[in-house]
Amino acid sequence: LARRTVHIKMHPTARTFSERREVLRVLERFGEVTMFRSYKYHPKNPVPNAFLSVFTDENAAQAVVNASPMRYRLVSDATANIAHEAQQNIKTGEANTQAMEDDASGQEKVFELHVSPSQFDHEHHIANDPLFGPWTPMDRKHSFFGGGLEIPRSLMSSGLRDWETDGRKWRNVGDEVDGPGA
What we know:
By secondary structure, the protein is α+β, with helices and mostly antiparallel strands. Among the domains are: 2-77 and 109-128, Alpha-Beta Plaits; 138-166, no CATH class. It has helices at 17-28, 58-67, 77-92, 97-106, 122-128, 144-148, 157-161, 173-178; strands at residues 5-11, 33-38, 50-55, 70-75, 108-117. It has a 5-stranded antiparallel β-sheet with strand order 2-3-1-5-4. Helix 3 (77-92) packs antiparallel against helix 4 (97-106).
């Protein structure tokens, strides 16, 4: 996984969603991207011009690193609108094309991507992310939910506390499929 992961720095910083999306499009020229994450909204250390990307193939990741630094030109939608207005003005005979050319050149940006192998520790990230849950087995009697239940001691209390695993630890899946009399 580490060999397929790359770190991307972008200059100048992307200001719009379409500018950030274009970074993904440039990377997809080298191979399929399975994960693309902007560090702009990172909870601990936000970085507005950094991205993390994971490719499906190690060769694609290496090709991106070898092609670094990459430059691409992004023409905004406003430029397309100005060109459309220029065509309309030519049809109607208006001659304000100089002002439109100045506006069009201001809407074009050149971005540079610096790609390097990533030092991202995937195992550490997953272990510390509350959305992925614990990787180590948790004792069902001492879990947060199991400990919060107030069940009086009886013959059924252990089964009532085991709402998380539903007794799967003691069942044999093969016996359920074949059945005892099969």
